[in-house]
Amino acid sequence: MSDQNGKMQTGTGAKLNRRDFLRSASALAGLGLLAACAPAAQPAGGSSADTASAERQEVRYLSWWFEEGNRGDTWNNFVTEFNEAQSEIEVVAENIPFDQYTTKTIVGAQSGQLDGDIVMATPELAPRLIQADLLVPLDDVLVRNGITDLSSAHDALRKDGNLYGLDMVTVAFGILYNKDRYEEANITPATTPDEWVEVSAALTDREAQKYGFFATHLVSEPSDFWFQLEVWCMPYDGIWAEGTTPLLTSDPIIQGLKLFKQMYDVAMPQGADNPTGYRLFQNGDVAQGLYVSAAVGAFTKDAPDLYPLLRSAPIPWASNKSIARIHPMMINKASDAIDESMEFVTYMYNPDNYRRMVEGCQDVIFAQPSAARQEYLDNLEWLEPGYSGVDYVTPFDIVGDFVYNFNEFGQIVITNFADVLNAGKSVEEAMEIAQQQAEDLAERVS
Amino acid sequence: MSERVDANVLSERTSQRELKPRPRLRRYLLPFSLVLPIILYEGLLIVYPIAQGIYGSFTRIELASKNPPLWVGWANYERMFSDPAFWKVIRTTLLFTGLVIVVALTIGLLTALLFNRPFRFRPLARGMLMMPWAIPEVPVVMIFIWMLSPQFGVVNILARMLPGVTQNPQWLQVPELAMGWMVLISSWKAFPFYSLVILAALQAIPQELYEAARVDGASRLQLFWNVTFPGIGSTLELLVVLAAIFSFKQFTIIFLMTGGGPSGTTETIVIRIFNTAFRFYDYSYATALGVAGFVVSLAVAFVFILMQARRAQESA
Amino acid sequence: MATTGIDTRAPAHKLSPRRLLNRTALYLTIAIVSFITVFPVYWMMISTFQPSKYIMHFPPPLLPQELSFYQFAELFTEHPVARWLRNSFLIAAMTMLLCMALSVLGAYALSSLRWPGRNLFGLFLLVTQMLPEILILIPLYIIYRRLNMLNSIPSLALIDAAFILPICIWILKGVFDTVPPEVLDASVVDGCTELAALWRIVLPLSAPGLSAVAVVAFFFAWNEYLYAGIMLSSGEFMPASVGLSTLKAIAQTPVEQYMAAGLVFSVLPVAFYLAMQRYIVSGLTAGAVKG
To answer: N or C, which end of chain A has less CB nearby within 10 Å?
Structure first.
């Protein structure tokens, strides 16, 4: 054996002599030295902040948006502004990428306590955190700011009469289109689902790589897929579930999914992932899509050429309903700095600061309706009619008690619906299976 | 790391030995003191958490509840064994693992045989061959998603040359194609390593064996079956085990490219565990799935140990 | 591919027509294999160095139409890529050093010393290598939070090293096995202690094995994504693997910039591999050949 190995080593010619070894060893030692020194050289957020604010109480504010275009700039500015306005509290903005935010929060929650002092939540995360009793009531913030006209979306954030979250951005779905593409094709926005399919087909030329519509439709992007598919219960005025009863085989759901399938067949770049769909829209190769209002503001920075061409179409179904998603700010019950965190939340919910924040982020739905300024809204060319005067419902209204198992419920819907898109199953067939699986889920979690 | 230090250590040791002649005990204790830090380290960071995980699989943990985890006995396992989705996941995992072992090792073997022949630029060609192994997984995923894009993917150019293909196929949306690509991409990423190891094994086969066989008038094929293959047999055995472990644990490529779809055809057990724990918030059940996966891979390890033991007996 | 394992290092003589044909077939096969292997890497570069108008087109041109470099400038100014790379490097370098140090101890005990419990220790290492990493994410998170070790680069390196250490020990054990026992025995007879023999005899002979361990540990930590995303909540410490996935999530990143990020992320491990290639090959394979 050892004789074989000797041969092998000479064969590959890699036997080192002593000098070679010392040379590589010293190189490694150098590398080690570098690594050992590096932590000291790191501009660690902790240490520099510590020296600057020896007696200040640190408040860690966790969110996913501090690097997100104008929303990030706005929030970073507010954090700085707040820190400069007083000398007791130092708010530290910690960015966590959106695709990891939920996972990380869940890991924290399952291990018994949340990370951070102030946390943001998505509409699906919020009820779980409230139910698990991880948060501090925020009613005091309203009292101190004298706010009486809070949006009704906050009802879902109450438990036992206490309010546990304050909405910092509500995003609403609407149909956003590229004005030039509509004009080239000489068409006007649709007003019924059937017209919508026609219009989208007319905007599509697959050979020329022009598409009428895009929505995420890959199971490899489950959150985005379900996030967008959720809207498709609206065209025929259905809901996905009522209480613990899934309604996946109900007529409005079947019709809505058939509409999606039609759009997929006649107008969508099939199999394109979300980034590709977005880029095609940026280039003008996709004419329209379902976009949340928060994304529109982002186009000012990402696609300044496209932004002036953007318009919204009226919701093409009779109910005029769309989904609004609320993202509340919350305070961690396990925090060492609850009072200090409360100060910052109160500051941000001061009506004047709140208005500046919403306008800075270019959002359009005001949790404090009286804070909305008409001149600001008039400046947004894309606001009317698709994002204004719409009847908004929340995810809580359309998925019933499955809001506590939102992702798992969504996973059932999208994996079965994907079989309709790719495997040639009928919508009825696929939803029959999905309904069964969702009922099993309901039984298990109740 | 200089000679002087070495000498110091040495003289210190020898003088110690002269003063306190108890080399026996120290020699006896040496291996234990060497491995103790490793056992403590792995014990704290791996074994203790595994024990916690196994314990967790017998409980029901409410999300962030102040109540201690509720002991539920075998309930999670009963649910698992009666869950048709679980058996499908196991089948998918075994299929994927088996295919990657076969494909990656076959390519590895063929390329090793090829690159064992002398030719010009061989060092350069071998360096290029190792490229996929050195590239991290996330960029690998990025590039293959891009190459397989139904809109702009370069792979479609080839596909369109086939008769009857007039549209760009949806590579990752058709069940058989998606599984095929997962296997191919995982194999592309892994085969250079196997190829390298087989190449070394080939070069360790004594040339005399070939010469002797040739004198006996063996054909090329006979040479391969009677000399080459037995010569690299033990290496191939080891590689099968390694390939099994690596592909069993493959997460990034599948998770980012298909997410387990379409229709769950690429959903292996690690994907299922991730979804159950971190998307469906069902931590206790996820740990039961994790324990099941752990048991399956332990079975693989057991087979390996048996093979080793058999080999040791043979050589003894 | 009618090749056998024969290393035909025959003396060069005049090529007969049949040999010529054989040679041509060989080179052709090699060219095709190399092409298929390297093509994805080539395509990554094509997609990086051209403005996206060329590659967001079907069929895409197979040769570059225009070279551009602005995407790198944009990448580094719009995202904290330099910080990501530095964090990745620190994590990977610390993991590497820790693994090299500990695997020398473990491999020596496993290879060159005879002691009761040796096989049990080997089994212990094999078992720790078997588990899916996901299984222990939450238990580890709880431990780390109790010890107040979240959000720290060295703490993450500790986890990475724990995961890859067993493999490193196995690799190095294989290399130590190739040191002829007679050499060791001779040195002990000469009055060396076992530790001194390790330091003076085994290690210098095992430099390739150490390089292999270094590369394997470095690659693992450089790649690691799941734990890095959970254990380092602050963007301050985010490594490149996690950063890259955020670029994927931000749909508006232009293709060429996104591909440039992938390329930048791959450069260091590839360069590291190429620099150490000679040693790694023998280091990685010694143990495996021994079996």
So the answer is: C
C44 touches A at CB < 8 Å: no
Q: Hey, what's the torsion of the CAs at A337, A338, A341, A345, to 10 degrees?
A: 180
The CATH number of the domain where A344 resides is what? 3.40.190.10
What's the whole-model pTM score?
0.85
Tens-binned pLDDT, residue by residue, of chain A (446 aa): 333 333 333 333 344 444 444 454 444 444 444 444 444 334 344 444 444 545 789 999 999 888 777 888 899 999 999 999 999 999 999 888 777 788 888 888 877 778 899 999 998 889 888 988 889 999 999 999 999 888 888 888 999 999 999 999 998 899 999 999 999 999 888 989 999 999 999 999 988 889 999 999 999 888 889 989 999 999 999 999 999 999 999 999 999 999 999 999 999 999 998 888 988 998 899 999 998 888 887 788 778 889 999 999 988 998 888 998 899 999 999 999 999 999 999 999 999 999 999 999 989 889 998 888 999 998 888 988 888 888 888 888 899 989 888 889 999 999 999 999 988 899 999 999 999 999 999 998 87
Among A212, A192, A220, A128, which Cα is nearest to A405's?
A128
Q: What is the rounded distance in angstroms from the CA atom of residue A232 to the CA atom of residue C10? A: 72
- For domain C72-290, which CATH number applies: 1.20.1330.10, 1.10.3720.10, 3.40.630.10, 2.170.120.30? 1.10.3720.10
- Residues of chain C contacting A115 with CB distance shorter than 8 Å: 150, 233
Residue with tokens 């926005």: A189
Count CB neighbours of A413 within 10 A. 28
Chain C CA closest to residue A99? C249
Interface ipTM: 0.85
Which residues of chain C are within 8 Å of residue A35 when distances are taken between CB atoms? 90, 93-94, 97
Is A327:A75 a contact under the CB 8 Å cutoff?
A: no
Contacts of B304 in chain C (CB under 8 A): 126
Quote the pLDDT of residue B4.
Answer: 40
Q: Do C251 and A31 touch (CB under 8 A)?
A: no
Residue A222 CA to residue B271 CA, distance in Å, equals: 13
For residue C201, give the chain B residue with the closest CA. Answer: B6
Rounded CA-CA distance A363/A170 in Å is 8
Contact with chain A for residue C136, Cβ under 8 A = no
- For residues B57 and B65, give the distance between their C-alpha atoms in angstroms, rounded to a whole number: 17
C281 → closest Cβ in B135, B196, B245? B196
Q: Searching chain B, which residue's CA lies closest to the CA of residue A2? A: B204
C112 touches chain A (CB under 8 A): no
Query: Side chain identity at A33, as an amino acid letter?
Result: L
Instruction: Tell me if A5 is assigned to some domain.
Output: no
Q: Looking at beta carbons, which residues of chain B come within 8 Å of C272?
A: 134
Residues A234 and A175 in one domain: yes
- Mutation for testing the A interface, residue in C133, C236, C241 having most A CBs under 10 Å: C236
Tell me which residue in B30, B154, B297 faces C130 most closely, judged by beta carbons: B297
- The CATH number linked to B115 is 1.10.3720.10
Cβ A31–C208 below 8 Å, yes or no?
A: no
> Closest Cα of chain C to B152: distance in Å?
5
Among C33, C106, C266, beta carbon nearest to B136: C266
Question: Amino acid identity of B144?
Answer: F
Is-contact A400 A242, C-beta < 8 A? yes
Neighbours of chain C (3+ CB pairs under 8 A): A, B
Residues A228 and A354 in one domain: no
Name the closest residue on chain C to residue A5, using Cα atoms: C178
Interchain contact, B117 vs C26, CB within 8 Å: yes
Bin C268: left if φ > 0, else alpha if -120 < ψ < 50, else beta.
alpha
Residues A316 and A299 both lie in one domain: yes
